[in-house]
Automatic annotation (TrEMBL):
Molecular function terms, GO-annotated: transaminase activity
Keyword annotations: Aminotransferase, Transferase
Protein name per UniProt: D-amino acid aminotransferase
Coiled coil (residue ranges): none
UniProt cross-references to PANTHER family, sorted A to Z: AMINO-ACID AMINOTRANSFERASE, D-ALANINE AMINOTRANSFERASE
InterPro entries: Aminotrans_IV, Aminotransferase-like, BCAT-like_C, BCAT-like_N, Class-IV_PLP-Dep_Aminotrnsfr
One Pfam family from the record: Aminotran_4
Keyword Transferase found: yes
Family: Belongs to the class-IV pyridoxal-phosphate-dependent aminotransferase family.
């Protein structure tokens, strides 16, 4: 497969990054994961805006045509439905030092891999998942989509050991988000999700779900959600670019609702997947 690294498109085994790259040494970097359907970036503007936000927070500036890079990358890998990974690190200094050396050239890396087209598969093909709830041990700037995902991968491993597919994170008595997704609950026809000022990532999928709710006249509210509300909800969903909207049928040992994919999920899934193809 072909990857992009610092101005070049080349086979992945020929792409090399310095051992002094600050992304490698310190996790001094940010990333995005962007789905492409039929070769076109889905919610690309929103992803690029969030990338800008993350880069600004780290005071990294890059001057490249990211749109052009990503579309060439996807085309070079055969186009179609792809999940694109883009990472920008502060770059490589001459030696390891916590203190940032001024004037480094950022390392820009992108690769992609095929994703399943959930639209053609339809809602019947989507399997509901089990999640665990565990402590949110991450830092307080989860609004930045930064690398350094050790807490996330450790809780996902914990989820796997419990035969679950995601971990929802809890801090100060409330659930924040998943290790790699946002989440929603449905109570008596109303959709709820935690607000952005609770130390979570501003998910592009989350934003689109709220947009759909507004367009469909489905009441929705952003408010803190605790464990009791979560396990007693009629429906629970997770959302992310790679998974769209997935129904959660079990939280720890508790079955959610009647243990089946909910009607509001199905309705949102159908509208959402239509967006991916318009
Ligand atoms: N993760 N919250 C966290 C912590 C995430 O890592 C992600 C996405 C989201 C959802 O954001 P979006 O809807 O824009 O994908 C929320 C990506 C997919 C990943 O790390 O692979």
């Amino acid at each position: 497969d072909i990857v992009y690294l610092n101005g070049q498109f080349l086979p992945s085994d020929q792409a090399k990054v310095s051992v002094f790259d600050r992304g490698f040494l310190f996790g001094d970097s940010v990333y995005e994961v962007i789905p492409f359907y039929q070769g076109v970036g889905f919610r690309l503007d929103e992803h690029l805006q969030r990338l800008e936000y993350s880069l600004r927070a780290l005071r990294i500036s890059v001057d490249i045509d990211i749109r052009g890079v990503l579309s060439t990358l996807v085309a070079s890998n055969g186009g179609g439905n792809m999940s694109v990974y883009l990472q920008i690190t502060r770059g490589a200094a001459e030696k390891r030092s916590h203190v940032i050396t001024e004037g480094l050239t950022p390392t820009v890396f992108a690769c992609c891999q095929p994703i399943r087209d959930i639209y053609t598969d339809g809602s019947e093909a989507v399997s509901g998942i089990k999640v665990i709830v565990t402590a949110d041990l991450r830092w307080r700037r989860c609004d930045i989509k930064s690398n350094g995902l050790l807490p996330n991968i450790l809780v996902l491993q914990q989820a796997k050991e419990h035969h679950a597919q995601e971990a929802l994170l809890q801090r100060d008595g409330h659930l924040t988000e998943g290790a790699s997704c946002n989440f929603f609950i449905v109570e008596r026809g109303v959709l709820y999700t935690p607000p952005l000022d609770t130390g979570i990532l501003s998910g592009t999928t989350r934003a689109l779900i709220l947009e759909i709710a507004d367009l469909q006249g489905i009441p929705r509210q952003e408010c803190p959600i605790d464990y009791t509300r979560l396990i007693n909800a009629d429906e629970v969903w997770i959302s992310s670019s790679t998974r769209a909207i997935v129904p959660v049928l079990q939280v720890d040992d508790q079955v959610i609702g009647n243990g089946k994919k909910g009607p509001l999920w199905k309705r949102f899934f159908e509208i959402f997947t239509r967006y991916q193809h318009d």
